[in-house]
Amino acid sequence: MSKREDDCIFCRIAKGEIKSEKVLESNNFFAVLDIHPKSEGHTLIIPKKHFVTLLDIPNNLGQELLEFIKKVASNLMDQKRADGFNIVMNNLECAGQIVRHAHIHVIPRNEGDGIIGMV
Fold this sequence. Notes:
The protein is α+β, with helices and mostly antiparallel strands. The chain contains three helices and five strands.
């Protein structure tokens, strides 16, 4: 593992070095609540392996990732935490990516929630 991965907060969460309450987990992905949520239930979907952007995630994980995103969003809707949702992924610094480990935001939305713009 490279030094970059050793210092990566998401890699450390994936390895269990940093305690986190995972709301969902699969073979290659896990979901946690965002520590700076845009709305209640704002969830991050994170690959267990270190990939920097969407372009780095292997194509063979695409189906699992899509199903995982849909499950997280469906759970939020089923729990009546949202009337709708946004799916957002920032790739690289100029696009707003803060943590250099690929992750997808599932942001619950409700009518009149006042959220302006995205992550």
